[in-house]
Amino acid sequence: MFETIKDRTAPFVDTAADRTRNATVMLADAVARTHRPVDLAVKTSLKLNEITHKSLASLVKQQASMIEGTVDAASKRLHVAADADNLRDLVNDQLAMFPATRDRLAKDARNTVAVFTETREELTDLVRSVMEQARKETGEVEKTVRTAKRTVTRKARTAKKTAAKTRAKVAKKTKAATSRKKTTASKAK
To answer: If we measure between CA atoms, which residue out of 151, 189, 120 comes closest to residue 26?
Structure first.
């Protein structure tokens, strides 16, 4: 009697196991795809490193240029002061150099701001691309996980229903067989 129950339920158990195995494989694939965010983080870090180093190099060059300009201007002012014959010529010559100094300082400030602006634009582009990629990756993983959960839930539900039906059928047949044996036994007495 138990052998017939086992034989009848075996296909349902195998089907449920196969379905669960398939759902587990789908979930494993979803987990395997999570290495992509790690790759994204590495690539982003390298790109960020490249941007910051390039920007720092540009800023150092700009600052060096600014210092050279300041040293050249100071040297020129000292030569003009040394060449002045009197105090009036000294003051007039120094006043005549102010517009050039102002223009040089303004140019240096614009160039420094340009370095920061370029860096900001590159960082903004990087952040946007990372956010876009992260949304895309997250959406794919969430979709796969939802599908796997749905599949596992359905398969489990189907397996439970099938097992319940099989138990009911076996119980009914067992009850009928037991009733027949009792009836046959009581008639034999």
So the answer is: 151
Residue 168, phi-psi category: left (phi > 0), alpha (psi -120 to 50), beta (remainder)? alpha
pLDDT per residue rounded down to tens, the chain (189 residues): 556 666 766 676 677 777 788 878 877 877 777 777 778 888 888 999 999 999 999 999 999 999 999 999 999 999 999 999 999 999 999 999 999 999 999 999 999 999 999 999 999 999 888 888 877 777 766 776 677 777 777 777 777 777 777 777 777 777 776 666 666 656 655
Provide the whole-model pTM. Answer: 0.55
**One-letter amino acid of 109:** A
Q: How many CB atoms lie within 10 A of CB 104?
A: 15
Residue type, 65: S
Distances (CA, A) of 61 to 64, 115, 116, 135, 145: 5, 10, 13, 38, 51
What crossing angle do the helices spanning 35-83 and 87-188 adopt, rounded to 10°? 170
Question: What sections of 33-86 are H helices per DSSP?
Answer: 35-83
Q: Which residues have CB under 8 Å from 9's CB, separation 6+?
A: 163, 166, 170
Sign of the dihedral defined by the CA atoms of residues 103, 106, 108, 114, in that order = negative
